[in-house]
Amino acid sequence: MRALRPRLVSCTIALLAAGTAQAQSLVDLYESARTNDATWQAAQAQYEATQARAAQAKAGLLPQVGLQGGISRTEADIRTDAGTGPRNFNTQQIGVQATQPIYRPANWATYEQGKRQYEIARAQLSLAEQDLIVRVSQAYFDVLAAQDTLRLVQAQKAAVGEQLAAAKRNFELGNATVTDSREAQARHDIVVAQEIAAANELQVRKLALDQLVGRSGTAPLPLAEPVALPPPAPGDAASWVAQAEDTHPALAQARLALDVAGLEIDKARAGHKPTVDATLGYSVVNNPQGVIDSTTRTRIHAAQVGVQLTVPLFAGFAVENRVKETLALEDQARANLAAARRSVTQATQAAFLGLQAGAGQVRALEAAEASSQSALDANRLGYQVGVRINIDVLNAQSQLYQTKRDLAVARYNLLMGQLRLRQANGTLTAEDLRPVNAALAAPGTTPLAR
Questions:
Q1: What residues pair up with 79 in beta bridges, in sequence order?
Q2: Who's near 201: CB < 8 A, 6+ residues apart?
Q3: CA 219 distance to own-chain centroid
Q4: Which domains does the chain have, with CATH numbers?
Q5: Is 162 helix (H, G, I), strand (E, B) or coil?
Q6: What's the whole-model pTM score?
Q7: What is the pLDDT of residue 100?
Q8: What single-letter DSSP state applies at residue 448?
Q9: Tens digits of per-residue pLDDT, 317-345?
Q10: Which residue(s) pair with 96 in the sheet?
């Protein structure tokens, strides 16, 4: 088992070093995900299918043209006072029939529904795009956080190793007890275990990012040094909520669904209304052997034009019950709209508060990092002069590196918080990745060089 530890860690270091030349920015990996992510491709296919289905609704307003043709044979026995005789003949027929709806209120409601279904599909695609942006960004920063964790654990292991060596020297010189050496050895073993876990976590996170963007060996660019995060989004929660009311795709989708439900009521009520169609036809009937009462060959060309009126009288109360059903479904759509509005409002307010808290946490952890570094320096000096013991130094080291890890994660969470706020109020676009991308290091920088 001990032999596997250095292999796992060295393999992870090799993966990090291999990404030096081909490190990718967040925008680069997002563009890759647009062409490779299966969930996004499925959303695009659904959008195209809905677009085609919406176009089908227009067919109910356009002419319907059909071609009919047939051949038949008649075999008859004709009986008269003069006797009985067979009469056999063939009939050939071909014709074109066209129907143009003039007044069909149900068809018109279906056409209007189709246009709204298309808008719903656009809203759903927008939601899928925002989800892709967040998923790629989260996977990107998960890798960076895992890289920082491994780097800091390795730095802590080196520091603990130095402290262990110092404790052993002091013990040999008689300046410290064996307890100092054992405490340092125990802390060193713990850090080695943490290093193995951090190396494994990094590999898992990189695999997840690789799968999402359709690349192998992805190497995200780290944050630039010194870290300069984009300023938090301005305004207050109320302004973000008001913006969501106007632009959020989920609310637009719910409003359109309510319109569709209202049009479904119109379709149901159209069951009581008459329909009017214009008809036009042309047919040719050929009788090579004549007809039933004549042996003379005939060929008939006929054209028909007219208007057809259909008035429904009674359908077994189907129309009345269909109207009741659609009225209830409209109430359901209205309730769904209210629920969507409340959900968007809550999510936007929560995201705004989370972003504010994240900014405050970053500032607090930056101060804590400086304080922890000062505490470690003081404990090291105290240990050298004999007023502090080894465990004090080890605890100060642990506190410093834990604070550094927490600060790195808080910075990534702050960047994600800005994206999630825009997702919560429905305004997130690919352009919002550019300010985040600007906070990353220049290509060629790797976490190991930080």
A1: 84
A2: 146, 149, 150
A3: 23
A4: 4-77+85-449 (1.20.1600.10)
A5: helix
A6: 0.84
A7: 94
A8: G
A9: 999 999 999 999 999 999 999 999 999 99
A10: 67, 282
